[in-house]
Amino acid sequence: MTEHTLFTRIIEGEIPCYKLYENEYVFAFLDINPLSKGHTLLVSKEPAPSIDHLSQDSAAAIGKALPILSRAIKEATGAIAYNIIQNNGREAGMTVPHVHFHIIPKYKESKHVFTWEPKALDATEGKSIADAIQLSLNE
Ligand code: AMP
Question: What count of other Cβ atoms lies within 10 Å of the Cβ of residue 92?
């Protein structure tokens, strides 16, 4: 059964959008509340709620589409740089639980920032978390 997320309804044309690109696996359109001119959403047609649930075929298609779209957005907008942001889970800022990537152009005059407060990696913690992740990867 197809899950009808907001983005599925956009993909199926039930909700209008400024469509930019589509192939068998992905769909791209302008974000309705852009952080900057050309702010784009690249969405998997597969309605996975987060990237860890996404099939390899959809993930590969997103990987192929990102540079194609980024090039077109840069060329069309004259952006000097851009961020690609992807949220997974409500606590990470995801408001639509359907895998999507934000491509957010940056201009000379852009003021938007993404809060980031890094701390040096503790050696003991680094070793134990790297070991745990490697174990999960090998399962
Ligand atoms: P996120 O917070 O990462 O889940 O991003 C969801 C994004 O979807 C937000 O940036 C919204 O502005 C955008 N959005 C929500 N509804 C629509 C819509 N109808 N058309 C285009 N973008 C939308």
Answer: 9
Our answer on whether the CB atom of 96 is closer than 6 Å to any ligand 1 atom is yes
- Report how far ligand 1's centroid is from the alpha carbon of 117 (Å): 25
Q: Into which CATH architecture does domain 6-138 fall?
A: 2-Layer Sandwich (3.30)
Which pair of structure tokens corresponds to residue 85? 């942001």
Indicate the top mutation candidate among 95, 98, 112, 114 to test ligand 1's pocket, ranked by most ligand atoms within 8 A of CB: 95
What pLDDT, on a 0 to 100 scale, did the predictor assign at position 5? 96
Give the global pTM. 0.95
Task: Determine the average pLDDT of the residues in 79-102.
Answer: 98
Q: Measured from the CB, is residue 84 less than 6 Å from ligand 1?
A: no
CB distance 33 to ligand 1 below 6 Å: yes
| Structural domain boundaries in the chain | 6-138
Residue 124: per-residue pLDDT: 96
Which backbone phi and psi does 16 adopt, to 5 degrees? -70, 155
